[in-house]
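Subject: Sanity check before I submit

Could someone independently write out the structure tokens for this chain? I want to compare against mine line by line before I put it in a report. The sequence has 295 residues.
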Amino acid sequence: MKDSLIKAMACEGRVRIFICATTELVEEARQRFDLWPTSAAALGRTLSVGSMMGSMLKSDKEQLTIIINGGGAIGTIMVDAYSDGHVRGFVSDPHIMLKYNDTGKLAVGLAVGTNGTLEVIKDLHMKENWKGTVALQSGEIGEDFAYYFTVSEQTPSAVSLGVLVDEAHPIIASGGLIIQMMPDASEEDIVKTEQLIAALKPMSELIRTNDSLSDIVLSLYDDVKILSEQPISFHCHCDKTIMKRVLTTISKEERTAMIEEDHGCEITCNFCNERYQFSEQELRDLEAFLDAHAK
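---
Independent answer below. Compare away.
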């Protein structure tokens, strides 16, 4: 199943649905950062929910950032999402492999922790960014976002996220589902959705065993209407020009040391792990430019 995202409505428009398949983009993240299984599952779940939240943005000029830190071994999870289906992100420690002793499942909640917050920052091109913050409930990501939507955005939501990782570390299946109650949702709609969620198979299993994303979403309710479908991917907007700007934010002394002692430098993008090389001459040219335009 190719990576994609579907928006749909059900119950005559009183229930909103977002569903995505993210196997390829999570595998790309795994390869870029050499993610171990628990780190891959945690970042993969966040990339999935990020892609769905990105599709909720109103214009291609807007973006949102998700920051999760629960005080666990994995450290911070950070994901950027855009309306065009692009997502990018990283975890502080990519080399976490933890399992729960009783189930043998990847211990994402333990790795993330619950002594911290889930924060969503939306750049809506207004005077100030919008920010919503909630305390982490379980560290399992899905439950935490269900709580976030209900408390911070006042939209009762069910969130299901899953990443199936092979023992050799490749991503077998990954995806996510958000079901939201609209203001006019009836008690019958709520009960129907609660029953659906209770019987829902794990998202990674649904992604792995179905031929298309539309097959999954159409099976959820009797009257599902698909509104749109779009491709999604792991994509970072960094380039060498942007990284050159990063060099201007450090001190002149540090840049001089790079020139005279290191004879060049390498900068790594946190969001995609892409490496950019700057030769000694490129650094000298940059320094000359800054000296000429210094106020």
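---
OP: Matches mine. For the report I'm noting this point. The radius of gyration is 21 Å.
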